[in-house]
Design a protein that fits this description.
disordered N terminus; alpha+beta; single chain
Length: about 290
């Protein structure tokens, strides 16, 4: 990619160099991609994102209380919208680039961006990802969970479990002054043990002051590649793990062009948290 001459970090005028300055400048001189200072959140911003994350977690907890066979995904949308509004926040997905609902509900072979509908009725054995993003006082928090409806097959149970393990392993790989590629490498290595496909067309992302910020957090890759991870950065890790191929396509019946389907129409699973990078590793800001 050739970042050798790409000077992105600036030190504060009149201020002595901090340990963060020294670390970032070291890697920048080695030609690595480093964040801009604007991606490093202030304590006030972190606190705002953390409060948004509390509401976001509450939304998914509320879904967990009610989700069951016979429920429509439109009912899930209403639960999410009502909880969010009642707690003084706003659903980030609603009307985002034409997305018509407050939450993404992705069932079985739908990888992500499933649109809630009256005709989508949950059945025994389904697995569903519920993905919600909250805006509170201008601060964003983003998370998703998998839910198993009743009793499902051992194959689907394993997929859901391994997808969660991929999130946890990716988070463990995210160390201060490591690289985004370290996260993807750890995730893909674990998924490959089960011959699962890791979706390459979609990724995690920076978040906090906007819905999507730098860096792009790919869930496959090589160690030492991608952007340097610096304390104060906030980002999501959200691996999409397919039972079969990693390839995907957009549902032809989706006139809005949102719903992403697995290439072989086998099931997919995804878990997501918003993380704060600290001097000691990541802190989870959502659940």
């Amino acid at each position: 990619m050739g970042f050798k001459n790409r000077k992105r970090w600036h030190c504060l005028p009149g201020q002595p160099l901090t340990d963060i300055d020294k670390q970032v400048m070291f890697w920048e001189e080695k030609g690595k991609l480093v964040p801009t200072r604007e991606l490093i959140k202030t304590p006030k911003q972190v606190e705002g994102i953390r409060k948004s994350g509390i509401i976001n977690t509450g939304v998914l907890d509320e879904v967990e209380k009610h989700i069951c066979a016979g429920m429509t995904t439109l009912e899930i949308d209403r639960i999410c919208y009502n909880y969010c509004i009642e707690h003084g926040a706003t659903p980030a997905c609603l009307n985002y680039e034409g997305f018509p609902k407050s939450v993404c509900t992705s069932i079985n072979e739908v990888v992500c961006h499933g649109i809630p509908k009256e005709e989508d009725v949950l059945k025994e054995g389904d697995i569903i990802n519920v993905d919600f993003t909250t805006i509170l006082d201008g601060y964003y928090a983003d998370a998703s969970r998998m839910f198993i409806i009743g009793k499902t097959t051992p194959e689907k149970e394993q997929l859901v479990r391994v997808a969660k393990e991929c999130l946890e392993i990716g988070a463990e790989a995210a160390k201060p002054y490591s690289f985004v590629g370290d996260i993807g490498h750890a995730i893909s290595k674990h998924a490959e043990k089960y011959h699962y496909g890791v979706v390459r067309d979609l990724c995690g992302h920076g978040v906090g002051l906007a819905f999507h910020e730098e860096p792009e957090v790919m869930h496959f890759g090589h160690r030492g590649t991608g952007m340097l991870l610096v304390p104060g950065m906030v980002f999501t890790i959200e691996p999409m793990i397919n039972m079969g191929t990693w390839k995907v396509f957009i549902d032809a019946d989706d006139e809005l062009g949102w719903e992403v389907i697995t290439g072989d129409e086998l099931p997919s699973a995804q878990w997501e948290h918003t993380f704060l990078m600290t001097e000691h590793g990541v802190e989870v800001l959502t659940r």
